[in-house]
Amino acid sequence: MLLSDPLQALQAPPTFTATADSILQDVDHIVETYHKEYSQVVAAVTPSKADFGNTSFPLTHAENERTLGERELIFDSNVSPDREIRTASQQARSIFDRFDAETSLKYDLFALVDAVVTSRI
After folding, report:
1. pLDDT for 5-36, tens place per residue?
2. 46 C-beta neighbours (distance < 10 Å), count
3. What is the spatial distance between Cα 107 and Cα 55, in angstroms, rounded to a whole number?
4. Which structural domain range is residue 105 located in?
5. Would you list the DSSP string of the chain?
6. pTM value?
7. In this structure, is residue 103 part of a structural domain?
8. Cys-Cys with 50: which of 57, 60, 61, 115 at CB 3.0–4.6 Å?
């Protein structure tokens, strides 16, 4: 695809409009959404019925979405000139780390993923 103007940007540049409050609200929203995704998969699928399509795919998709949001929110912890934004971004990192630790300890989720892996071997 040729552009009529080769100096024209293909997409708009990122905007950095986050506030300390918006960062923490976004973290809560992402964690809540991700928790719902996990809960839906665990509620709908038993280990005997677990396969790539009903377990791995939705979990991976949710993880990718969460990771994208996480990276955007913790980016400011290293670069923002505003101390409040840096602090909120560091808090966001702590919340995500805690959530990751809690999620990795969920046996019901492990059982589903293990069933998918075991069935593929």
Report:
1. 767 777 777 777 899 999 999 999 999 999 99
2. 12
3. 14
4. 20-120
5. ---SSTTS-SSPPP-----HHHHHHHHHHHHHHHHHHHHHHHHH--GGG--IIIIIHHHHHHHHHHHHHHHHHHHHHHH-S-HHHHHHHHHHHHHHHHHHHHHHT-HHHHHHHHHHHHHH-
6. 0.81
7. yes
8. 115
